[in-house]
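Question thread 4412

I'm putting together a teaching handout and wanted feedback from people who do this every day. The idea is simple: show students a protein as raw sequence, then show them the structure tokens that encode its fold, then repeat with a second protein so they can compare. Below is the first pair exactly as I plan to print it.
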Amino acid sequence: MTHAPMAAVWEELGGDPALLPGVSTVVRAGALEAALPVRELARACVGACALAAAELGARRAGLARVPRVSVDDGAVATAFVSERHLRIDGRAPVNFAPLSRFWRTADGWVRTHANYPHHRARLLDALGAPDDASAEDVAALLAERSARETEESVYDAGGLAVALRTPQEWAAHDQGLALARRPLIERGGTAGRDGTAAARQRVLAPLSGGGPLLPAAGVRVLDLTRVIAGPVATRTLALLGADVLRVDAPGLPEDPDAHADTGFGKRSTLLDLAADSRALDELLASADVVVTGYRPGALDRFGLSPEALAERDPGLVVAQVSAWGAYGPWGGRRGFDSLVQVATGIAVTEGSPERPGALPAQALDHGTGYLLAAAVLRALTERAERGHGCVVRLALARTAMWLTDGIGREEGPGAPADLSLAEPYDRPDAWLSERAAPVGLLGHALPPVSFAGGPTDWSRPPGRWGTDTARWS
């Protein structure tokens, strides 16, 4: 990667470099301060997403020029911690459960993730702890174990725990080596004759005048994602006018606060993918985009692997996000942003081997989410030109390697042409809003994706999780 993160991302997306001078950046000291260049990563991810949206909007609206893009560090920094700014009738959500944290082990540190009841149960089972074990009980058990042994035993039980590693240890790890051989954004075509005409017709429908420019208006997005990265991507597509339908399994628990944060602009339904295969087929038959965020392989038995979806409809845009990538020894593992930070050496860089730290935001989640949305938007633009879809893949751990190894703090050739200094980022108030929703009065972060004539907020607040019908609008 070059010292121009935005240009590097845009190149990986296959974008025209001639559009980069149309991006301006409002620089604010104090935004996402960290040992690593988190602000530069966030700015590049949001900027690339906004430019991809403006490009698609210009094409569909028949504009002579692509609208100018503005990236404000204040808006970006606020959106990258949107889950912390969420308020529901004045109540602030709890983002991490008591057993989701760092723990000292006999030889170092381990971090666990136990926000969901089933992950908590599996963690305790692996440790031989009772269901009502306290944090103190868990701390005592882990103090007698090694970090690597804990990592393996908890994963073998279906739970989530990762041993603290240095950047050098991760670079030598088999999964780190596998990731290093891959691009940040994997893109592959699905060319074929079947479905080509339909793909062209769906994407090239002209946008009508009046109101904000919505590049993804009329695009149907089947959202099979959870937690942050995938939902951020689909939340962004909803902002841009897409008809986003999130589908969850009836028996899989979801945090209602997480849904409130990432459910803006979407509808949400419950569907048993095995028992309701006909309903799934009907949704897929007219979908433009399918976004998946489960661990690789988890959805394959339902015909929802990227390869099966691409074969089913060559005009489909398929986007997959995972924690560790769909390859290497950890390709089938579950993971979350906080755990990826620990494995890849970020926690050591932001702290030390004796006292690990963390990024100022779940930047791997949010950054990868905006990159995923950008990749979908570019794929839609390319589908309008070539008549076939695309498979795109991103991984939090690959984004982490970009952050640790590939981003410079200085702007260089090919970077956004217009950089302007503004007031330091000390209060997020300018980028927060309130609105009534079915779940209560929501205080929330405004979207950071901004281009001339584009939307400034979502068309609808999040509804209640799983209460919509399983059909397109």
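The second pair follows. I'd like the answer to focus on this one:
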Amino acid sequence: MRAPDDSDRSPVGAVGRVTVPIPPDGAGEVLVAVRGGSEAYTAWSSTSIGRDVRVVVVDAVSARTVVVERLPS
């Protein structure tokens, strides 16, 4: 038997919204649409991002922590 593939559970590539502002060199929080619902993740970014800004997840650091970038307009 094959082990379950976790790729369908990865938030990478998902679009979300910042719920707690992300400061430079600090963590904030994002609400990301995944698995048919929305989940909150601790979020890091190379630049500060304010509340309610739409972002895309570019990396998953751990099960509950992601790296995000502003969603291109």
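Top answer:
Good format. For the second protein you could add a caption like this: The radius of gyration is 12 Å. Confidence is low (pLDDT under 50) at residues 1-5.
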